[in-house]
Amino acid sequence: MSATTIDRSPWKRLIAPAIATVIMFAILCSLGAWQWRRLHWKEALIAQVDMRLKTAPVAAPGPVGWSTLDLVEFDYTPVTVSGTFLNDKEAHLYGQISQPRGKLGGVGWWIYTPLKTDEGWIVYVNRGFVPDGKQAAATRREGQIDGHVTVTGLARRPETPSHLFGDGIPADDQWFAREPSLFAKAAGFPAASVAPYSIDANAAPNPGGMPQGGETLVVFSNNHLQYVVTWFGLAFALLAVFAVYARGVLKGRD
């Protein structure tokens, strides 16, 4: 073997690790850049929602506007609507309040009651929270409001969990996701007559104190800066590891 081949062999040993390092560095930096863009998107969304919460309520959109309604943009919009509660068609959504604004907290249920509007279409209203054991309507008859009502609150987009089995409709009417379309299907309402959003009612007191309204939390998780630091940190740590490795390989030729 010639002296030239011996001198160049350490550099050859670095070719494959260098290529792998460059590829991984690019991937990690792209992930960091993506999280940076997500950070700015989330900050803009939070500012937008803060502004939206300060606006006067608008009429809850009916069927004519549903096909073009951007449910993400519409989320947390103050709305108002009038009609009659269909109390026998409640849906009970499992939940927990750790810092309640009212007297009731802990583990319990959100009471979603369909409201038949004056125009004839239906929207599910989250009337508020009840503690565990009070989800059955028979245990809080005072809170079952009959007659014409006007509801003011915040529009909420549906949650879309994946249903691994079945159609997503629980046999015991105990729900774990906010899904007006499935609430409606379980209740036997025509799909075309039910709003694709729901409304979280404001804190107006209900007879008997239940359900307890006004408990909507406007909270957005925003860990994107942490992810930015993590991905870029890993990228430059990778360069440092390669530098140490390369130094050892090159020193080994001496």
N-to-C series of helices and strands: HEHHEEEEEEHEH
Number of strands: 8
Structural class: alpha/beta
What is the straight-line distance between the termini?
17 Å
Mean pLDDT: 84
Please, how many domains?
2
Strand content is: 15-25%
Query: Largest beta sheet: what is the strand line-up?
Result: 2-4-5-8-6
Radius of gyration: 28 Å
Biggest sheet character = 5 strands, mixed, barrel
C-alpha geometry: elongated
Question: Share of helix among residues?
Answer: 25-40%
Q: DSSP helix count?
A: 5
Q: What are the low-pLDDT stretches, counting only 5+ consecutive residues below 50? A: 1-6
Structure description:
With 254 residues, the protein is an alpha/beta fold. The chain has 2 domains: 3-49 and 222-251; 77-209, no CATH class. Helices cover 37% and strands 23% of the residues. It has 5 helices and 8 strands, in the order αβααββββββαβα. The protein has helices at residues 3-53, 63-66, 71-74, 180-187, 224-251, and strands spanning 58-59, 78-85, 91-97, 106-117, 122-131, 148-156, 174-175, 194-201. The protein has a 5-stranded mixed β-barrel with strand order 2-4-5-8-6. A hairpin with an 8-residue loop joins strand 3 (91-97) and strand 4 (106-117). Helix 1 (3-53) packs antiparallel against helix 5.
